[in-house]
Structures are given as structure tokens and as C-alpha cells.
Amino acid sequence: NPTNFTNVQPRVGLAYSLHGGKQVVRAGFGLFAGPWDYSDLMVGWQGASAFTSMNNPLVPDFNSPNGVVGLGPSGVVGVSGPFLASQAFRSFATTGTYPTPEILQQFPLGYIQRKFPNPYAEQASLEVESQLGGGWILTTSYQYLHALDLPVYLSVNGTPNGTLPDGRQSFVPADPRFGFALIATPSGFSIYNGGIVSVRKAFASHYSVLANYTYSKSIDIATDVQLTDTPQDYLDPSADRSVGDNDIRHRATLSFVAESPETWAQPLRNLKLSMLNTLQSPRYYSILAGFNRSEE
């Protein structure tokens, strides 16, 4: 792709002091453009020639000239199934023998939308910091982050055919020449809202304390570019909008640093003790596995 000159990233910030400098209000907003997620897409698209077109009138990119891009002349070839794959791997690792052609299969083809914009994020923050006396400082803040044009896999070999018993859309193959076919599109997004309360004491009298509590919510349609995050309905990917795999609703941290006085006995003077404790809501899904492997 040619150089993109449209990734303008304006940012603005302000700070205002109140009560003789004992209270400060800070705010900021900015746009942050990210790089094209080439490495993640390459991992998933080891096949898919742009000349291997798929017949699906519901996908506009298939019906426009140069609408999609493939990453190879054919597709990934490998051994299917854990039993045969383990045997083939063991044979190759011990003897250097490649799998026989009879057990090799071509894995699903995939495509990438040719006009793939850079992902970007809108970020806003508001913070109020107040001195409480005795070296203690109270900070309350709000963080907002909205990411757009994130890459998402869509499983596109299907045309609507009624609904499933649970009300979800049912599909039948759109092109019988294909099995499982995917296209990567910039249809993903995520939204993060977080409120933070922090209390800290600057280092004095041989100790310092920092306590922090965050209440937040993360929403997206896909946490990562992987098959487990593929929306169920490629015609309506926003229907998968829900709490994200990265969501941690509550998080509290406490850190403490202490130093022994120089007036103490020689073996004990100038010693430092520190600790960091974290208590947070559980993660209900493994980001890599895509489901709760521990069955908790």
C-alpha cells in the first residue's frame, strides 16, 4: 500500500490549579493511529490466492475488482487431526521423514480486504488531584478509550437459511467449492471506560504508601485476531458486541516502601522493605484458548 498521509493524530491537554496549588484538574484528548497488524494477519493467511475467487454475492469485496488480496498461490498443507499429526511430527523429529502425500490436506483458504485502513483510537481522560495534608494526596480520574478499524476474521462461506433454535442466524454454504473460508476486515472495535481512585503518601518519615482502586468495563466484538474470536454472523458482526475477554471489573493494588533509619544499629540501618499486593476480579476466559479451560 502507498504511504498513508491521512493518519493525522491531534492531541490536546490542559491543567488548571486551584486553592493555591493544593488541587489540580487535568484533562486530555487525542487520536492515536496504530500500524497495520501485518504479523497477526500473516499467521492466519498462509494460503488464499487472490486468483482463487469465491462466489458469495453478499460479500462486496468479492464482487469488486481487486477487492481482496491473498497471501500465496495455494494454501497451507498439513496433517489433519491430533493422532495423525502427532505421529507425523514424531517421525519427522526422529528420522527427518516428511509425511506421505496420502495424509496431507490443504487447509482453509482466506482473504484480506485490500483497502485496509490503519486502526486508530480515541482517548480521553479527566483527573482531579488534591493535597490532603501530612503528605497525603488523593487522585480521582476517568479514562476513556475507543479503538476502531481493528482487524477481525469473518467466516464468509455462507448464505442465510432460517434461524437456529436459539434464535441465531443459520447458514448454508454459499460456494460448495469451498469449505471453511475467511476474510479479514477492519470491522472490529473496542470500548474501555475506567474510574480510578488513588491515595498516596510521598516518601517521608522513612515510608511511602500507594493505594489504588479501579472500576472499569471493556467491551468489544473480538479481543484478538484469531478463530475463537470470529463473529457468529459475518453479515452482522456488531451482534457479537459484549464484555471483552480482557475485562477486569474490579482491581485494587497496594504498595508500601519503608526504610530503616540511619540511627539504628549497623546491621539494620538503611534497609529497605517493599511490597506490592493486587486483588482483582477473575478472568473468565483464557485469551489464548478462548474458553475456560479450568472449568471454574
If you had to describe this structure to a student in words, what would you say it looks like?
This protein is mainly β and 296 residues long. The chain has three helices and 15 strands. It has helices at residues 38-44, 60-63, 82-95; strands spanning 11-18, 23-33, 68-69, 77-79, 104-106, 110-113, 120-133, 136-155, 159-163, 169-172, 182-204, 207-220, 242-243, 250-259, 272-280. Strands 1, 2, 3, 6, 7, 8, 11, 12, 13, 14 and 15 form an eleven-stranded mixed β-sheet that branches. It is extended.
Average residue pLDDT: 82
Report the β-strand fraction as a percent range: 35-45%
Number of strands: 15
Task: Please write the string of helix (H) and strand (E) elements.
Answer: EEHHEEHEEEEEEEEEEE
Q: Which class best fits the helix and strand makeup?
A: mainly beta
Q: What general form does the structure show?
A: extended
Measured on Cα atoms, how large is the radius of gyration? 27 Å
- Amino- and carboxy-terminal Cα gap: 46 Å
Low-pLDDT ranges: 46-50, 71-75
Largest β-sheet summary: 11 strands, mixed
Number of helices: 3
Amount of helix:
under 10%
